[in-house]
């Protein structure tokens, strides 16, 4: 991995003893690898608990009207997570805090980090609280706009009023996460979904009988608050380590958090999440259970994408700090590696999802109120949706590269808008004929178009990556994934038990993907083999 530039690590040492030395650079790659591993492990734990959450929801309420009602209300936490935790706030707060940290390292007598917190956190908290109260008051209208075809919207309205609290709690969560990641503290931000999903699961098992599906919404409200609690102590410790300078007149926060940057980021994140709004809107006119089938298919299929973006999450502050220091070549190398490695992970996962879809859905969900018919529909939808996983991953990685420059850029919003128009158009044209499969195909097509536009949009004003080289590597990995999916599907079909089918399919996909990648000369494999050989020699 690329070593960390000198500007990345000063905040971890006392101001009088800067650590921008050659020895600290040598540990940069090791630090990023460890941070990515820890973040991935905790994210996998959170995703697995999310899977258990969906299993509990399927067990108690199946794929019927109750689940549809909750999933309409669930649109708010999904939207809030994208806007406030995963993309929106992070895309402008991480570069803002990175720039403030670089300024503090250059002039220890001042503390732009605390200036930034004083200028931004109180105002943002007021906006988050106002948004939560407005959503609670407008819950009936929100439900009517999201899913006008629901036969009985009352349960959805009740759930929406409970989930609306996440506009406040997720906002504070996202602020803490962005600040901690800029300080290169990744453990606390990675634990938030573990705490969140654990609370929802507990609420389902304890309150499902008296409250029905409203128990899941209550879990969202309590879980959101716990996400803030698990990060607040760590952020407080980081802020206390600063030089403690008095607030400066004309604080640097005014220059760091520009209104135009904030709006471009938030509009991009909102536009991206509107894919879910379009899907729920179209699916609400289909027979009961359509929204549920789409939801279960997406939650399982997205797990490879979540894993693939962990490295980009960890290296995003490094890219932002490199660009702030004028080290464009270092940022370019890091972004190119991230794109290829993220593509490698998600394509291997896509091949596995496509190969074992029926057995995987049966193993995970077919119990209680979730029937064999639900399994067949969900598995077929998941295979269609998986075709867009590489596009989703590239959009997440490329958007970080665009916004890391901490300057106003409209390319991400323009690209995402065209993708959304295509998603909506294909969805409206195909939902009558193909149902949920048409909606899933529209999602995959729209996000792939967005990814291509974002890749073409990188240039001298952002991160000038070598587009042809990256596209060539991803193309070879895609061919390897196609071959692996075919072999994995053949192995899974020859096994009767779902658990054995999943194991056989996953094993065949993993081995064949690596072999096909080596045969095709895919770039990650030589570097991985060199790394392994180097570690072995070091141990000897």
Concise synopsis of the structure shown:
Helix content is 80%, strand content 0%. It has helices spanning 22-26, 28-61, 65-86, 88-106, 112-137, 139-146, 154-163, 166-182, 187-190, 192-211, 214-229, 232-240, 253-256, 259-283, 290-301, 303-308, 310-324, 328-365, 372-386, 389-403, 411-434, 436-457, 467-493, 498-520, 524-539.
Structure in words:
Residues about 1-25, about 250-255 and about 530-535 have low confidence and may be disordered. The two termini are about 20 Å apart. The chain is mostly helical. It contains 25 helices and no strands.
**Which overall shape is indicated by the principal axes computed on the Cα atoms?**
globular
Name the average pLDDT. 81
Largest sheet: none
User: End-to-end distance, in Å?
Assistant: 22 Å
Q: Approximately what portion of the residues adopt beta-strand conformation?
A: under 5%
Number of helices: 25
Total beta strand runs? 0
Percent helix range: over 70%
The sequence of SSEs as H and E is HHHHHHHHHHHHHHHHHHHHHHHHH
Kindly provide the radius of gyration, computed on alpha-carbon positions and rounded to a whole number of angstroms.
Answer: 23 Å
Uncertain runs are: 1-27, 248-256, 531-536
Structural class: mainly alpha
């Amino acid at each position: 991995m690329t070593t960390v530039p000198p500007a990345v690590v000063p905040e971890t040492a006392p101001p009088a003893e800067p650590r921008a030395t050659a020895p600290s650079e040598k540990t940069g790659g090791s630090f990023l690898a460890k941070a990515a591993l820890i973040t991935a492990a905790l994210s996998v734990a959170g995703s697995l608990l999310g899977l258990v959450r969906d299993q509990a929801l399927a067990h108690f309420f199946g794929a019927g009207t109750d689940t549809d009602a909750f999933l309409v209300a669930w649109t708010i936490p999904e939207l809030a997570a994208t806007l406030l935790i995963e993309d929106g706030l992070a895309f402008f707060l991480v570069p803002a805090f990175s720039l403030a940290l670089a300024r503090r390292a250059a002039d220890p007598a001042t503390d732009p980090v605390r200036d930034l917190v004083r200028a931004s956190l109180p105002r943002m908290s007021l906006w988050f609280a106002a948004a939560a109260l407005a959503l609670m008051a407008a819950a009936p209208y929100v439900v009517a706009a999201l899913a006008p075809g629901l036969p009985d919207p009352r349960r959805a309205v009740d759930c929406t009023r409970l989930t609306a609290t996440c506009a406040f709690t997720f906002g504070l969560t996202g602020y803490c996460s962005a600040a901690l990641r800029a300080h290169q503290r990744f453990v606390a931000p990675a634990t938030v979904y573990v705490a969140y999903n654990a609370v929802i699961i507990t609420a389902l098992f304890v309150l499902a009988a008296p409250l029905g599906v409203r128990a899941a919404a209550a879990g969202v409200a309590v879980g959101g608050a716990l996400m803030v609690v698990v990060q607040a102590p760590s952020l407080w410790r980081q802020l206390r380590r600063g030089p403690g300078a008095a607030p400066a007149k004309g604080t640097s926060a005014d220059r760091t958090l520009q209104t135009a940057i904030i709006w471009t980021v938030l509009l991009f994140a909102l536009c991206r999440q509107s894919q879910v709004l379009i899907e729920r809107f179209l699916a609400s006119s289909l027979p009961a259970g359509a929204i549920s089938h789409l939801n279960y298919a997406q939650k399982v299929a997205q797990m490879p994408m979540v894993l693939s973006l962990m490295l980009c999450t960890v290296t995003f502050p490094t890219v932002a700090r490199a660009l702030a220091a004028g080290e464009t070549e270092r940022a370019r190398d890091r972004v190119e590696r991230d794109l290829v490695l993220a593509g490698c992970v998600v394509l291997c996962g896509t091949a596995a999802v496509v190969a074992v879809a029926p057995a995987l859905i049966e193993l995970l969900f077919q119990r209680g109120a979730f029937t064999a018919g639900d399994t067949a529909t969900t598995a077929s939808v998941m295979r269609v949706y998986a075709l867009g996983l590489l596009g989703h991953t590239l959009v997440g990685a490329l958007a970080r590269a665009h916004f890391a420059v901490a300057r106003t850029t409209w390319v991400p919003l323009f690209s995402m808008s065209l993708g959304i128009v295509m998603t909506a158009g294909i969805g409206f044209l195909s939902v009558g004929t193909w149902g949920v499969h048409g909606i899933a195909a529209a999602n995959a097509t729209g996000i792939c178009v967005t990814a291509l536009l974002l890749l073409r949009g990188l240039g001298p004003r952002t991160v000038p990556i070598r587009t042809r080289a990256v596209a060539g590597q991803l193309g070879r990995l895609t061919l390897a994934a196609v071959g692996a999916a075919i072999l994995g599907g053949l192995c899974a079909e020859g096994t009767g038990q779902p658990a054995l089918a999943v194991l056989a399919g996953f094993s065949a996909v993993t081995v064949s993907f690596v072999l096909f990648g080596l045969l095709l000369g895919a770039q990650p494999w030589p570097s991985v083999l060199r790394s392994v050989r180097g570690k072995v020699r070091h141990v000897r």
